[in-house]
Amino acid sequence: MALIITDECINCDVCEPECPNGAIYQGDEIYEIDPDLCTECVGHYETSQCVEVCPVDCIPHDPDHVESQEELMAKYERITAESA
């Protein structure tokens, strides 16, 4: 399941550099997450790094992008293969 940043985001800039896939970017109002690049850090870390550093707890799972651990790992493998 990809993650999403809610409108509670305070634009503190701490999540974007933590994303190993480059899925987080500055949107019009708040930071946003590209669900095609978000693997919840599967393949990189044990926990989602953006969630770990977020001071306002505004990065829940995105109910519109439900994925299993296997699907997240497959996405990680695709992303890393494309960047190689």
TrEMBL record:
InterPro entries from the UniProt entry: 4Fe4S_Fe-S-bd, 4Fe4S_Fe_S_CS, PSI_iron-sulfur_center, YfhL-like
Domain 4Fe-4S ferredoxin-type stretches: 1-29, 31-64
Xref: Pfam families: Fer4_7 (PF12838)
Listed GO MF terms: 4 iron, 4 sulfur cluster binding; lyase activity; metal ion binding
Gene3D superfamilies, sorted: 3.30.70.20
Spans through the membrane: none
Gene Ontology terms: cellular component: cytoplasm
Organism domain of life: Bacteria
Keyword Ribosomal protein: no
Keyword annotations of the record: 4Fe-4S, Electron transport, Iron, Iron-sulfur, Lyase, Metal-binding, Repeat, Transport
Family matches, as PROSITE patterns: 4FE4S_FER_1 (PS00198), 4FE4S_FER_2 (PS51379)
NCBIfam families: di_4Fe-4S_YfhL
Protein's UniProt name: Ferredoxin
Organism: Solemya velum gill symbiont
Lineage: Bacteria, Pseudomonadati, Pseudomonadota, Gammaproteobacteria, sulfur-oxidizing symbionts
